[in-house]
From TrEMBL, chains A, B, C, D:
Organism in which the protein naturally occurs: Tistlia consotensis USBA 355
Chain segments annotated as transmembrane: none
HTH tetR-type domain mapped to chain residues: 26-86
PANTHER family: HTH-TYPE TRANSCRIPTIONAL REGULATOR BETI, HTH-TYPE TRANSCRIPTIONAL REGULATOR RUTR
Designated name of the protein: Transcriptional regulator, TetR family
GO molecular function, one term: DNA-binding transcription factor activity
Top-level taxon of origin: Bacteria
Length: 224, 224, 224, 224
DNA sequence: TATGAATGAGTATTCATTCAT
DNA sequence: TATGAATGAATACTCATTCAT
C-alpha cells in the first residue's frame, strides 16, 4: 500500500516536470507562494514546514507536489518573489532621485531599508543564499539565477558611481562594498548585536554612504 | 585543528552536575567536541544532529548525555572553543603590532582573516548568534555570555581608536562598523557573491581599514 | 468485543482537523482502537505505547497520527468506547426493571457486573480517571467530558432513590456511596484481595444494596 | 566497552544475592529508602525514577544496585515501609479505644484516615498492589507477603466484630466490606470524583461505619 | 487536480541496567 | 562499596515525500 521513501527526485537538473501552462495553475501557484510567505512571516524559517504552508494555503501537503517539485523549490520561489519586491522598492525609490549621488544613495538605502523593515525577507535571503538547499544539483542552477537577479538589483549603484566619475572597476568595487556593509549591518541589527553597542543601524548605513560619496567627489581612492 | 581551546569551563556553565574532573573524562569530552566540529564541517549545521555527532564520535547518542547536558550545550561549547581560537589568533596578531594604528589593523584583520580561513567557524558563529538555539531558557544566559565574549574580543579595536584620538563614543562606533563590514564581506565571500564580482574580500577589508584610519588621522567625522 | 460503540464523535472532540468522513477511514480508526484495546489487554497499561499499538494494528507509528491527534487521544477514545459499552449494558439491564427498587439495583449491579466481567475496562477506567493523562491541556477538557459521562451513567441510581422517597441530597449521597462501594469491591476483586478472604464480590455488592434499600424503606438515615 | 542490556536478573526467585549483614549496610539501605519515599512524595510515581532516587540519596544510580536488586525492589520495600507506618498509625489509634465498637471504628477510620492524609502512600499502594511490578516471578512472592501484611493490619476489625457478637465468617465479611468501602471512597476522593458530587469522604466513611455498627447491634444480617 | 493514507527516517531525550575499575 | 562510563531500548512525535485513487 503505497511504497514510499524512495527519493527518486526527478531526472537530475531541476526543471519541474509539470506543464505549467494553464492560467488556473499559475493562479494556484501564486496562492501557495502567498501562503508560504505568510507562514515565513509568522512562524519563521523553522516553522515553515510543507505541512504548515499547505495548511495555510488550504491544501493537503501532497497537493503542493503537483505545483512544486519540493519544499526547497517553494523556498526558492518565495525568495525570488522577495527579491522582486526588493527590486520594486528600490525602483520606486530611485525614481525620486534626481542627481547621480541621490541615485546611489537611493539604491543603497533602498536595499538596506527593505531588509531592515522586512526581517523575514532577510532571514529568507540568508537561509537560501547559504547552504540551505539540500539537493545541490537543483541548487546550482537556481544559484546562478539568484546571483544574476542580485547583480541586476545592485547595478544602479555601480551606474551612479560611474556617473560620478568612477571607472567601471572602481564602480563595481564600490557597489560590492555597499552591499557588504549593508549586509553586515543588517546581520548585526537583526541579531541584536547592534543595539548591544548602542548604535543605530540605519544611521550607520547612511553615514557610511556619506563617507563614500565624499570620497568619490574628492577623487579616486587609487587602485585596490 | 583539534585543540578545543582553553574552555575555562567553571562550575556554572553547562556541564553535568557531578564533579567529573577526571583526566580521562575531559579527554573524552574533547573527543566528542572534536566529532561535533567534524560533523558541522561535513554535514553543515542542519545535519549536525546528536545522533550524527555521537556516531562520528563512536558513541551511542545516550552516552553523550553523560558528558553534556544537552545538544545545545554541545553546540555552545563548540562555539566557545571556536571563539577561544579566534581570540588566540587575534592576540597572536596583536602582539606583533607596535603602533595604535597597527593594533587597530591587527585586531580587525585578525578577526577577518580568522573567519576567512575557517569558514566553518563562520557558519557556527552565524548560526549560533542567531535564532538557532531554541530552548531560550538555556539560550538566554548563554547568549549574554557570548555577547560579552564577542565584545571583549572586539574591544582592542575601540581601544586603538581611542589611542588615535577618537572619543569613546566614536571609538565604539568605529568598532561596530569594522565588525559589520567584516561580517558583511565574510558573508558575501562565504557564499560566493564576492568572486562573482571579481573582487577580493581581504583586499576590500584592508582598504576599508585604510580609509577609516586615514579619516581618523584627518579628524573626527562629526557626531552620528 | 470489537464494536467501538456509538462514539458520537462530533467535531470538537479529538479527531484530526480534516473532514475525514469516509467509510474506510472510520473502519481503520476502528481497527486501530481495537488494536489499542488488545494491547491494553495483553501488555497492560504501561506497555501500551504508541509503537505497540501501531505494531498490533499493522501500522507504522506515524500512520496513527493520521487518524488520531495523539496517544492520549487514542487512550481517551478507547475509554469513551468502554464507557459507551458500560452505558449500553446498564441500559439493557434497566429496561427489565419494573419498580424503583429494581431500577436502583439494576443500575448499581449493572455498573458493578460490567466491570466485574470486563476487568480490562476497569483497568482502563482506573488508569485514565487518575493522573495517567499527562498533557493536562488536553486532559482537562477531556476530564470534564468523562466526569459528565460518568455522572450521567450513575444518575439513574439517584433518580431511583428519589422515587423511593429520598431527598435530592440523600439520593446523590447514596449514589456516590454505591459508586464507591462498587469501585472498592472491584479493586479488591481485581487484585485478588477478595478471594484471599474467601468472599464473593458480586454477593457482597448485592448485599450492600440490600442493606441500603432496606434502610431507604425504613426512613431517612438523618443528616450526614 | 561494557556490554549492557543483558537483563540476566538474578537466579529467578527474588532473594537478593547481597549478604546484608553489616550494620552500615542496613543503615545505607534505610537512607536510600528514605530518599525513595521523599521522591515519591514530591514527584509522584512517574517521577520516581532510579536516577531521581539515587540523586536524592546522594548516590550514583549504579550504587543502588549494590543495595537493591532492581527498581521494583525499592518500590516494594517502600510500600512495605508505608504499610508499616499505616500499621503504626492504626495501632496508635486502637490504643485509645475502650469498647469493641470503638476499636472497630478506630481500626477502620485509622486505615481510612492514614491514606486520606497521605495520598502518595495511596498511590504507592494502588500502583504496587496492581500490575506495576514487571518481573512477575519476583512479584509473586512479594505479593503473598503484602497480602499477609494487609490481612494482619485489617484483622483488628474482624476481631472487634467478633467481640460484638458476630461469627467468624460474618466478622471477616464485615472487615472486607469496610476495606472495600474505604478503598472505594479513597479512590474517588483521590481522583476528585467525590468533590464533584459535593460529598465529604471522611464523613461518608464514618456514616458507613455507623450503619454497620448499628446493624451489628441489631442482630446478624444473615448469611451472605 | 487533489486527497487520504501511509511510509521511513529522523528528532532529542530518558530509562533501568551493566561493567570495569 | 561506589563511581564513571556506556548501552540499547524506549518515548511520543514531526518531517518531506509517495502513491493509489
Amino acid at each position: 500500500m503505497g511504497l514510499p521513501g524512495r527519493k527518486t527526485n526527478g531526472e537530475g537538473t531541476g526543471t519541474p516536470r509539470r506543464s505549467r501552462r494553464t492560467a488556473a495553475g499559475e493562479l494556484k501557484r501564486g496562492l501557495i507562494l502567498e501562503a508560504a510567505r505568510a507562514v515565513f512571516e509568522s512562524e519563521g524559517l523553522d516553522g515553515a514546514s510543507l505541512r504548515a504552508i499547505a495548511a495555510k494555503a488550504g491544501y493537503t501537503p501532497a497537493a503542493l507536489y503537483f505545483h512544486f517539485e519540493s519544499k526547497e523549490a517553494i523556498y526558492a520561489e518565495v525568495l525570488q518573489a522577495s527579491m522582486a519586491r526588493l527590486g520594486a522598492a528600490m525602483t520606486r525609490r530611485a525614481a525620486r532621485a534626481k542627481s547621480p549621488a541621490e541615485r546611489l544613495r537611493a539604491a543603497a538605502m533602498g536595499f538596506f531599508d527593505f531588509y531592515q523593515k522586512n526581517p523575514r525577507d532577510l532571514d529568507l535571503g540568508f537561509y537560501l543564499f547559504r547552504g540551505g538547499m539540500k539537493p545541490r544539483g537543483l541548487g546550482a542552477e537556481r544559484d546562478r539565477a539568484l546571483n544574476a537577479a542580485l547583480a541586476a538589483l545592485l547595478e544602479p549603484i555601480a551606474l551612479a558611481a560611474e556617473e560620478l566619475g568612477a571607472g567601471r572597476a572602481e564602480a563595481e568595487r564600490l557597489m560590492v562594498e555597499c552591499f557588504a556593509h549593508a549586509a553586515g549591518l543588517l546581520l548585526l541589527a537583526h541579531t541584536g548585536r547592534i543595539r548591544m553597542f548602542g548604535a543605530s543601524a540605519p544611521r550607520l548605513m547612511a553615514s557610511y554612504l556619506d563617507e563614500k560619496l565624499e570620497r568619490l567627489g574628492t577623487g579616486p581612492a587609487g587602485p585596490a
